[in-house]
Design goal:
CATH superfamily of the largest domain in chain A: MetI-like
Number of strands of chain A: 2
Structural class of chain A: mainly alpha
Strand content of chain B: 5-15%
Shape of chain B: globular
CATH topology of the largest domain in chain B: D-Maltodextrin-Binding Protein, domain 2
Number of domains of chain B: 2
Largest sheet of chain B: 10 strands, mixed
Radius of gyration of chain A: 25 Å
Shape of chain A: flat
Oligomer: heterotrimer
Mean pLDDT of chain B: 88
Chains: A mainly alpha (320), B alpha/beta (442), C mainly alpha (284)
CATH architecture of the largest domain in chain B: 3-Layer(aba) Sandwich
Largest interface: A-C, 112 and 109 residues
CATH class of the largest domain in chain A: Mainly Alpha
Structural class of chain B: alpha/beta
Order of helices and strands of chain A: HHHEEHHHHHHHHHHHHH
Helix content of chain A: over 70%
Number of domains of chain A: 2
Helix content of chain B: 40-55%
Amino acid sequence: MTEAVSAAIGTGGRGAGRVRGRTGAWMRGQGFWLALMSPVLLFLIVTQFWPLVDTSRISVFDYQPTRSPDSTFVGVQNYVDLFVNDRRFWIITRNSFLWMLGSTAVQVVVGTAGALVLNMNLRLRGLWRGLMMVPWVTPVVVVAIIWRWMFDGGENGLVNYYLGQAGLLSDPLVWLSSDVWVWPVVLLASTWKGTPFVILLVLAGLQSLPGELIESARVDGAGAFKRFRYVVLPHLRPTLAVTTLIALVTVWFKFELIWALTTGGPAFATTILPIYVFTQAFRDFNFGMAGAVATIAMLTLLTVVGVLGLLTRLRKEGSS
Amino acid sequence: MMSHTRRFSRRQALMIGVAGGAATLTACTGGGLGDGSSQSDDEGGDGSGGSLEIVWPGTSDPEIAVAEEFGAAMAEQGIEIEFNFLSWADMQQQLAVRIQANDVPDITMTQDVTDLVGLGALEPLEGYLEDSAVDTTLFSPGSLEYSTIDGKLYSLPYLAQAFTLIVNEPMLAEAGFAPEELRTWDDVVAAAAAMTDGDRYGFACPLGNPRFAFRVPLTMGYSNNLNLGDPDPAAEQRWLELLDHLVALQPYRPAADVAWDYPEMWQAFANGQVGMIVAGTYFSANVQPLNPEALETAVSMPYPAGPSGEALAPVSNAGYAIFSGSSNKELAWTVLQELASPEWTARLAAVVNTPARADVTIDDMADAVAEVYPDAVEGRLTQLENDMAVIQTSGTPLKQIVGQPEMEAEVQEVLLDLLDGSIERDEAYGLLIERLGAIADG
Amino acid sequence: MSDVRVRRAVASVAGRYSAVLALMLFLLLPAIWLVLSSLRPNREIFTSMPSWSFLGLTLDNYEWALSERGMGMVQLLATTLFVCAATAVLTAVFAMLAGYGLARYQGVGARAAVVILLLAQMIQGPMILIPWYSVTAQLGLLNTRTVLILIYQTITLPAAVWLMSSFFRRIPQELEEAAAIDGAGRLRTLAQVVLPIAMPGVAAVTMYAFILAWNDYQYALTLTSSRTTKTVQVGIAQVMESLGATNWGGIMASGVLAIVPVVIVFALVQKTLISGLTAGAVKG
């Protein structure tokens, strides 16, 4: 691959060398960096931004092809319907936040703990780190089958059975049909699937933590918690910021796991905005409404990211 | 930093090697990047040759085997068939995208054609039927109607599918009932009560998946002169009776069934934990792998009569349809007739359901049954015979419902609230009429 | 005194390994249940009592999963590994170039580039399916591995570029300046000075992209349909919800077969990956 890259670069280099005059000067200045970025940015703009425009365009039309082949311009009617007339919309929005914040928070916490564990001096560390990947690469369909069995609502569901044996549960809990209990299950499953990604990034962050720092803290008499709080955590902050951002964006739009576990149910208790987009588009063929929900989902996330200030902070930290 | 990273260049090389090796391996075994792009592009057209893409959501082993044998038989006639295997649930999504993008397959298996017809994607078949040898009088009651919209037929059925009540006969006998005694809804409730004992339950109503949550009241409704897709205020009495019936069965259901999808229901029935379920003629295929004996001891019947109706089994179908955007419709029709012929119908019906045509007999299906149900030949033949009889004697066309998937979700939500006691019957009725009505009106 | 020290050491070792045990239990219990189920006959998977017994296990499900008449996992894995590897390599190359550019660019619109990446990361799923389908159908790319590799770039590139750029920012610019004084052009500097240091980062991004492609289901479902282009995710999902019998044991076995090769590759390259991510994710 290195050869391939060098070859590609070689060609580009000769091309660039022929450029003369002001363009040449620009290419030797900032233009060069822009040129490096341009293939990716152009690709993303061409492939991704047309769908973006198309999605927001369709959101101001009433387009339900199973009912009528024509689409009619309706202005903000779809949005009004969602905000005012749709009794589910606000529940679904709340669910989305619960899902995004809950899932990200738990993943980051558990992932950080997991990374600390796998960073210890262990025999067969490579093996543990390899096995840690299992949840991440298990196909979602299979994840759903296993988790549905484990949280089966009968007394022989794996979890009910052992909780019953342990005397913690007198009656079996019907996890997936309870508005309340379905959430811990969905969040646990998503934590399970998403934690390896966080472990990897945090483990990476830990590699560059100088051992002497920990050691001197130990000599100063700092206990394990204090060492973590005052030495390890500050060191990890940039990593955690990165991880959190990627996790937030990914979790907000990833719905396959919920879909496979609960199909958004019971009723709409675990439906999140992307699921609503999906069902509006491919179940109800209400493409206009799907476009409106999708647009709202994107704007909401942009706002969240903006509010968290991650965008600016990342930029700053990145360049310092 | 430098020395730290340089150490890994060998590992890096190893990793690239692994990835590259995998790539080479696939390239060798799979035939390179562009392989597999056999979009059914317009060759032929004279009917004697060409290629077609058939969407085939029958993905159990025996169904795939039938597809492959059919493909081989067609290949002998110079027709190349590309099968597009996927699940019924995924089919909707793939087809929706392809129809929007004006790039459709040639033939598809169908169940409910409403959405596809609404999208203008299917070719009406009358014109083709007139000039063909297909005898439409041979199809089971209800099966053709299910594919007919505004007087036009859009698919040629191969399976007739009826929704029925399925009873574990030994459990029922233990409770002191015989299947023939289940004549009314009250009988069902009484039997359910008598069968419920400890951790065995008389009835189950899987509410975890909207589609199947909807199917239970839908099936019951047909036995009470009620169509769930038509929220007509004039039918209030029949709605209330239906809701009362569901509430009456509530004490005899396992608490967990509110979260069940179909697999959990089959499992509970096959293990003898539940005595009665609302299911259909697809019962055998689903339960045989779990407990072949259950095929011999289960009795399937039209759901018993409600206070305002008689015992009827709504009949739908699975069929084959041609896309109006197919570039080779004549050839597609030729292939479709072959697919819907008694020979191939018998093969599939033996495996998964009941045949849609009256000229397919039990004997025609015996060989296929022996092959697919080696440990339950007798049981499967009994089920088949019984199902075919139910359709002939009590079958009634299942009416298509515009916006059914949306309604399914609404019905599921209301039933969950009704059955956990958080709303009363009257409120549930009000909500159903209001919400289903809104969907029906678009 | 030494007795206390020994006891403390033992306690520390015990503590460490019980922590690993707890972590592995959380991450692997469902997977162990998966493996056990995959080794049971279909009928027993559904027995009422949870059973961890190792008795009466069978390889039948694996036979089905591997055979052409069953799941055909060999073909599925071959296709998937190829698509994922190609996706990963392509992502790595372009993310490397763009990441380098993003790290060094100070001109107009530097922040806009970051926003474009973020937006691109958000435009996923149903939103892009129909446009992608229409365009690739016209280009004759449907039902090929190429179209998958291309659409996967839209999932992988944004985060990959961003990870790469933060990695390049850590490399001291003096190194490049020194090379420039020696008369090397910028591209030669990149190839000969910067790239060797950045290799672990490239490795990290490669693996990250690999897994993202590996986990896709929606795109492959919509854009491919023939046997030779099916991925593992689609292949396993397709046998659910048939009118006929569902082979649960076979699905479980296929799941295990899908996991094993990726985990082995990871165990082998985890050191490269982790040190690569270190440099990428953490500022100096």
